[in-house]
Design goal:
With about 325 residues, the protein is of the alpha+beta class. Helices cover about 35% and strands about 30% of the residues. It has ten helices and 17 strands. The strands form four sheets. Strands 12, 13, 14, 15, 16 and 17 form a six-stranded antiparallel β-sheet that branches. Helix 2 runs antiparallel to helix 3. Bound molecules: adenosine-5'-diphosphate and magnesium ion (MG). The site of adenosine-5'-diphosphate has 19 residues, from strand 9, strand 11 and strand 17.
């Protein structure tokens, strides 16, 4: 039996570099259980050089090979880009794999790019008739856009300003006072070419895992992020002192709400042509309105991450899931 060479590509220069390394260990542990796989881990360092698992520098070549210092080459069969945020979840790495004709795990570059931009995501969701929070989007830091933002603020009073192409709550600010609008808008434009302003929702944050399993799309019951600070900031997400609690299964939700959330998640997954996996996040208000906040096409896989917990909580096994995707992609 010849083994399959599986590339785990992790790191990246973004804010989630360290989280990616932890998620990569999750994949490595699971893949190591299958003796048919030979695992090759490559880290994209913060300075964008690439390091092979034994510490040698390496490159990925067009034909889907790793070329390691000294000219050793390894032909890869399947790649797993475990990179949250740029350049993985944002689509650049999937595009490279597509050019290489290398089968890989996760969404295509096109879906990744659409879902990583908070504005294109909203436009697609609206056209799929999936409810999103009221918003405006801003294209320049200039007077016309500042006016547009002020008009929006007058109606909504409490808003969130978000740089369009960021994750981990970076470039994301709650704004409750008109005097702070201008300075926060300016900061957002330092992160992204577009900025989204949306109504601040008071309510619960629910998440579901959506994934392809044994030939069909599965949606877990909602889990919940309980964040006493109200804003699930970068610090709340990754700091050891975080007060935030995560529940793989949310409590006290009516069957109707659960059904609606799952239905929106399934429709978003299908409509956006998300592939293999996504964690899809929602807000639920006290009056029962549901808004889809964002799909995450490469969610965290750390020991406290929701995606694998909700998949297992849904009665499925992560290894069976991953093996199923790998064999489907290698045989298609
Ligand atoms: N419209 C909103 N109303 C209330 N809280 C929000 C809103 N948008 C974002 N948040 C808070 O900010 C966090 C990060 O926003 P999100 O859009 O999920 O960006 P990211 O891609 O950085 O995760 C959310 O988990 C939530 O706690
Ligand atoms: Mg989020």
């Amino acid at each position: 039996m010849t083994s399959k060479n599986i590339l785990i590509l992790c790191g990246g220069g973004g804010t989630e570099h360290e989280v990616s390394l932890v998620s990569a260990n999750f994949f490595q542990n699971i893949l190591e259980e299958n003796k048919e796989y030979a695992i090759h881990k490559v880290t994209i360092e913060k300075d964008s050089t690439r390091t092979y698992q034994d510490g040698r520098k390496c490159e990925l070549r067009r034909a889907g090979e790793i070329v390691i210092e000294g000219n050793e080459t390894i032909q890869i069969d399947f790649a797993i880009p475990v990179i949250h945020g740029p350049p993985g979840e944002s689509g650049e790495i999937p595009a490279v794999f597509e050019l290489m004709n290398l089968p890989y795990f996760g969404s295509t570059h096109e879906t990744s790019t659409i879902c990583f931009n908070k504005i294109t995501t909203k436009l697609w969701l609206e056209s799929l008739n999936i409810p999103v929070t009221p918003y405006v989007y801003l294209t320049e830091y200039d007077e016309a856009n500042i006016l547009k933002l002020k008009d929006f603020f007058k109606i909504h009073k409490n808003i969130f300003l978000k740089a369009s192409n960021q994750g981990s709550s970076v470039g994301c600010y709650p704004v409750g006072s008109e005097s702070n609008l201008d300075s926060h808008l300016k900061k957002c434009f330092e992160f992204s070419p577009y900025v989204l302003a949306e109504t601040s929702v008071v309510g619960r944050e629910l998440e579901v895992s959506v994934y392809e399993y044994e030939g069909s799309i599965q949606v877990s019951d909602p889990g919940e992020i309980i964040c006493p600070a109200g804003f699930y900031s970068y610090e709340e997400k990754y700091n050891n002192e975080s007060q935030t609690q995560t529940l793989a299964k949310a409590e006290n939700l009516s069957p109707e709400i659960i059904k609606k959330v799952k239905d929106y998640a399934r429709r978003a997954f299908i409509g956006l042509k998300i592939r293999h996996l996504a964690r899809i996040d929602f807000f639920l208000t006290s009056t029962g309105s549901i808004y889809l906040n964002e799909p995450n096409t490469f969610p965290g896989h750390t020991p406290i991450s929701m995606f694998p917990m909700m998949l297992e909580g849904n009665g499925h096994n992560y290894r069976t899931f991953l093996d199923g995707i790998i064999s489907k992609e290698l045989n298609s």
